[in-house]
Amino acid sequence: MMLWLLAFLLGVIYGFAHPGKENRWKIIKKSLAIGIILGLILGLIVAVLLPPVGVIFAGFTVIGVVLFVLYFTVLFVIGTIVGDILESLIR
């Protein structure tokens, strides 16, 4: 429940600590790649452990993990925007 707040706060800290503007598109692309890889790995595990129904659940697992990672990435990127604003106000 508090993971969204943690992702946002980490984004604020990252945006404030790194001088200059962050490359947000690069952060989103990396997280999408990580989400797809994690989703495929978890999907294969589900497909192997539950052979008859596992294939259906494997597809949902891949989609779910990718959406989960993207959700937290968006929160992180919003946090970097806030961190950049704070950095420009303070420094």
Written overview of the protein:
The two termini are 33 Å apart. The chain has one domain (3-90). Helix content is 89%, strand content 0%. It contains 3 helices and no strands. The protein is mainly α and 91 residues long. The mean pLDDT is 84. Keywords: Membrane, Transmembrane, Transmembrane helix. The chain crosses the membrane at residues 27-50, 57-82. This is DUF5518 domain-containing protein.
Largest sheet: none
The count of DSSP E runs of length 2 or more, i.e. the number of strands, is: 0
Mean pLDDT: 84
Count of individual domains: 1
**Envelope shape:** elongated
Report Rg: 17 Å
Strand percentage: under 5%
- Label the structural class: mainly alpha
Structure in a nutshell:
This protein is 89% helix and 0% strand. It is mainly α.
List the topology elements:
Layout: H1 3-17, H2 24-49, H3 51-90
Helix pairs in contact: 1-3, 2-3
